[in-house]
Design a protein that fits this description.
Structural class: alpha+beta
Largest sheet: 7 strands, antiparallel
Oligomer: single chain
Number of strands: 7
Shape: elongated
Length: 227
């Protein structure tokens, strides 16, 4: 793949040309029926601080998202990324572990360094979470408004979904649920054993007390006879 501006060769998945510095629209490249809706003065890029451009993706499930015209980062509404990943993952019948490992190894540090970013909508700092096992993508998420993806990360997440990443996540959740169920069963058995031990100890103590009372009574009768 070559840069459309200077024709220099591009490294796979890199959103910036190392020769001319041009940014490439890797995430939305090839998407049909993409309609610009203009700049939104109420939302700003967490890095560039410029107003975001609203885009509409037409289709069976229309979607509106915001994009920074400078760095090409994307701000997706709540639930949108999960829908896109689910659509791409429907064709995955098995897990391509080699491709998933390649995607995980290709994770790039953010150009601005690791830091908490403000939400483009409300300005509150967003949480950083790894989206999916071995996706190699850490997203910035606002619990009330949506999540932020750097340029190229949406493309990587969709490739992760096609490689069976969602299936791998499902396996992980099942393994976790099985382990939690096993731990609960072990805890239940431990509590039952502790209760049984406590009851046995109480019964033994009671029998010992009765035995002591019987010995005391016998000694008292003997003392009376001898007296």
């Amino acid at each position: 793949m070559n840069c459309p501006c200077c024709s220099a060769p591009l490294q796979s998945g890199e959103p910036v040309c190392a020769y001319c510095g041009s940014r490439l629209d890797l995430d939305l490249q090839g998407w049909g029926r993409l309609q610009p809706r203009g700049l939104d003065p109420q939302r700003h890029c967490p890095d560039c601080r410029c107003a975001l451009e609203t885009l509409r993706l037409d289709g069976p499930e229309p979607l509106e998202l915001d994009r920074c015209p400078d760095c090409l980062g994307l701000f997706l509404p709540l639930g949108a990324l999960e829908r896109l990943v689910a659509q791409q993952g429907r064709s995955a019948l098995q897990i391509d572990h080699r491709l998933l490992q390649t995607l995980s190894d290709s994770a790039r540090p953010a150009a601005s360094g690791w830091r908490y970013r403000p939400c483009p909508s409300c300005g509150e700092l967003m949480n950083r979470t790894l989206h999916g096992k071995r996706s190699g993508v850490v997203v910035d998420r606002c619990r009330d408004h949506g999540l932020w993806l750097d340029a190229g990360e949406l493309r990587q997440l969709l490739a992760w979904a096609r490689a069976g990443g969602a299936l791998l996540d499902l396996e992980r959740r099942r393994d976790r649920a099985d382990e939690e169920a096993k731990q609960q069963e072990r805890d239940r058995r431990d509590r039952a054993q502790l209760l049984a031990d406590a009851e046995a100890l109480e019964s033994r103590s009671w029998n010992e007390a009765l035995l002591r009372d019987d010995i005391g009574s016998l000694l008292l009768r003997l003392a009376r006879r001898l007296g």
